[in-house]
Amino acid sequence: MSIIDKLNKDFESRVRLGIMSVLMVNDWIDFTEMKSLLNITDGNLASHSSALEKSGYIEVKKEFVGKKPRTSYRVTNIGRAAFVSHLNSLEKLIKSK
């Protein structure tokens, strides 16, 4: 298996790469803050976070604060391990001759 085959297709999108990068250094982060940090639309964040959730890489928590709905995200242990592996493969690819 070549180095490029070890890259995780779930993280190929720049939005998913951004979501995972933000979650690796934050415990929980809410929808509005994530959207603002990545400068993306509601729909873009919703679709990519849903895909990452289905893969088991992130956890999505929906709750009400007062009468306002709030969606928050955090990386799962599986997601953390998969993302670290992806980053390690990227690093090996960059350093390969």
From TrEMBL:
Domain of life of the organism encoding this protein: Bacteria
InterPro entries attached to this UniProt entry: WH-like_DNA-bd_sf, WH_DNA-bd_dom, WH_DNA-bd_sf
Gene3D superfamilies linked to this entry: Winged helix-like DNA-binding domain superfamily/Winged helix DNA-binding domain
Protein name as catalogued: Transcriptional regulator
Naturally occurring in which organism (per UniProt): Flavobacterium yafengii
Domain Winged helix DNA-binding: 15-94
